[in-house]
Design brief:
Shape: globular
Largest sheet: 8 strands, mixed
Strand content: 25-35%
Radius of gyration: 24 Å
Order of helices and strands: HHHEHEEHEHEHEEEEEEEEEHEE
Low-confidence stretches: 327-334
Helix content: 10-25%
Length: 335
């Protein structure tokens, strides 16, 4: 009888969609509505080229004309523009030795798939934070940042009032903001002040934190400086980030290989992802990209991003603050 290998356990055509679905299910940013996946962006992610162009009509401008006898209207024009999303492609490979303990499980494919899904969930969230760092480093996004971290004393603190001031960056569209991404130290600070409400959304579900009526997503990759007690949060409207899961017939998303030259034989699992993770209304300019697909460092580069929607139409605000009341004399922004 032959030994059981990964080829006996994993069917790529089943494994790949399972991993994608589980990655989405596990993602807090997806469950909060910050990131929304739809078929349009799946199609763009599966299309040609590394950039996806999305043309749009800009809003109508100018004042109305008062009607008068014998007069004629002065015709106005409508301007076209385009948003541009950058496709990302990445992958990894695992050897069977790291998965051996799972092969005795009742459903080893599901067990392996869950491990891979959890891994991609962490990677995608890290890439999302790189994208957010990049767009807020762009000069055209300066009016979407509310920074009070250099203010002296209590004026620089995170409070309910200062959070409302940050939301005001959206003007009369501030009611579109529904979720906030923050460091766990910031969540703890707010919880101690009874500003976090933990809600059990359905029976036997884990409690979900809310701050000022907005769902909280906690990620310790968010900026927080333990010395200055300076932190940052991103406040989002639903669907602020568009996600596409792509595929291509010439690129195998799941491959299995076996090295029979080793004494016991070694199995390998290769998994690849093609995605779009795009902040709606901020185009990727391609100013500084070396290879076909952008690295995290290139996603963080503000010169690669440019706002193309009007500010209120971009459903993201960055808020920089302190959670310590010491006086700070340095007037420069901490982030």
């Amino acid at each position: 009888m032959g030994i059981t290998t990964l080829q006996h356990v994993i069917q790529p055509e089943i494994f790949t969609p399972y991993v994608i679905r589980r990655t989405m299910e596990l993602s807090a940013v997806v469950q909060s509505g910050i990131v929304v996946n739809n078929s349009e962006f799946d199609m763009l992610a599966s299309g040609p080229n590394t950039l996806a162009n999305m043309p749009f009509w800009e809003d109508l401008q100018g004042e109305e004309e008062t009607v008068k006898q014998g007069g004629f209207y002065d015709p106005k024009n409508i301007n076209a523009n385009k948003d541009v999303a950058r496709k990302q492609m990445f992958g990894n490979m695992w050897g069977a030795d790291a998965l051996t303990a799972l092969l005795s499980g009742a459903d080893p494919m599901a067990a392996i798939g869950d491990l891979v899904s959890t891994y991609w969930q962490r990677i995608i969230q890290a890439r999302l934070l790189a994208v957010l760092d990049g767009i807020f480093a762009a000069t055209t996004m300066a009016d979407k940042v509310h920074d009070i971290s250099a203010l002296l004393g209590d004026d620089g603190l995170l409070t309910g009032e200062s959070f409302i001031d940050a939301g005001q960056k959206m003007g009369d569209a501030k009611n579109l903001l529904t979720a906030v991404l923050m460091h766990s130290a910031v969540e703890a600070y707010l919880a101690k002040r009874k500003l976090i409400e933990y809600v059990q959304e359905y029976e036997q579900s884990p409690r979900v934190p809310y701050f000022m009526g907005k769902r909280v997503v906690v990620d310790d990759a968010m900026y927080y400086d333990t010395t200055t007690k300076t932190g940052a949060m991103h406040i989002f409207g639903s669907g602020a980030i568009a996600m596409g899961n792509g595929s291509h017939p010439r690129i195998l998303e799941t491959e299995l290989d076996r090295d029979s030259t080793s004494h016991a034989g070694e199995d390998y699992l290769v998994n690849r992802r093609i995605i779009i993770l795009h902040p709606r209304g901020v185009k990727f300019t391609e100013n500084s990209v070396e290879d076909e697909f952008s690295t995290r460092a290139e996603l963080k580069d503000g010169t690669n991003w440019e706002r193309v929607y009007e500010p209120k139409a971009i459903r993201i605000v960055k808020f920089i603050f302190r959670i310590g009341s010491e006086n700070l004399s340095n007037a420069e922004s901490r982030v």
